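Quick one:
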Amino acid sequence: MTYEGHDRYGRYDCDVLVVGGGIVGLSSAYAITRAAPGTRVVLLEKERGPALHQTGRNSGVIHSGIYYRPGSLKARYAVRGAAEMVKFCAEHGIAHEITGKLIVATGRAELPRLHALAQRGRENGIPVRELGPAQIAEYEPEVRGLAAIRVGSTGVCDFGAVAAQLAESVGASGAEIRYGAEVTAVDRRPWGVAVRTTDGAVLRARVLVNCAGLHCDRVARLAGDDPGMRIVPFRGEYYELARPELVRGLVYPVPDPAFPFLGVHLTRGIGGGVHVGPNAVPALAREGYAWSTIRPRELAGTLGWPGSWRIARRHWRYGAGELHRSLSKRAFTDAVRRLLPAATEADLRVAPAGVRAQAVLRDGTLVDDFLIRQAPRTIHVLNAPSPAATAALPIGRQVARRALEVLGVG
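Output:
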């Protein structure tokens, strides 16, 4: 791209250009406008509205932070973000509830991991209570297990409504949100960054903030930066429980520490329905919400990344189990029945799926923590899967701080 008469005269369209209208991009724009009123912010979102992908397709859980390594960004931001998210929802009248949750061990081999998880929770400053079988029944009469821990600070909310409120607040502050504006080209110069969108518009900014989620690595490469990772999409497949009265709150299995997914769990949402899942399988497109959605170019990019094959070799047993549950409702039901013996195949109704944007390094490492990288005039949020919605407000402030430092503000 070439631009005439651009930089040296300071003719910018905005100070900060944010790419991505999910909850992280919106939180970043929100934090910038609150920290430095008058900063000109434009947010570009390729869809017709905000939060139509990861943010709007999750189970709505406000995570406590119990799973995450003490001292990690995930641990610190989840604990802080959960409290802030509850406060934000209360201030804006957004439906939410602090339900607490049970993490249940159904086999003896899981007991040491359950105890270690309780210890990790305490290290992260999270109130946890260890339970025996009779105490499990007090909270969840239909759930069976050898032992459990109860995490009292976990809750649920409507993250789509949170994103809509953030968009409204961002707009009210004077920032501009452009929907239907997909980024097709980025030109970084010493004076700043110029971006072209699908409609041919060109915007010039002092700083580019990349919160493109499932497409964040692509945007980084457009900017000329090597992100050192690729997004490998995993589809999370859900069912809805036809008899929601079987579950009072949130019930999780003990997670496998070798994999970043939490396993099939039960989530009573704010509307009273109970989501069951997710099952995690490779998606054949970055927005591949069904097996029938295949985008050859995106699939080729995933298969061409060495890390994808290394994941497959390292975790093939786990992946085979997930794939089996994807193709067999009976197998999925068996996984549910480990926690909820009363559940039957007839109780499970297909619900909308989501796709997780999982950053994978070249050596096959699944990036476990939030990953934010900075290059000249650009800030890239390269890994922000769950609990990013919970932690969106502190993540947004971190991104805003970096952007404002580049601008020389604050």
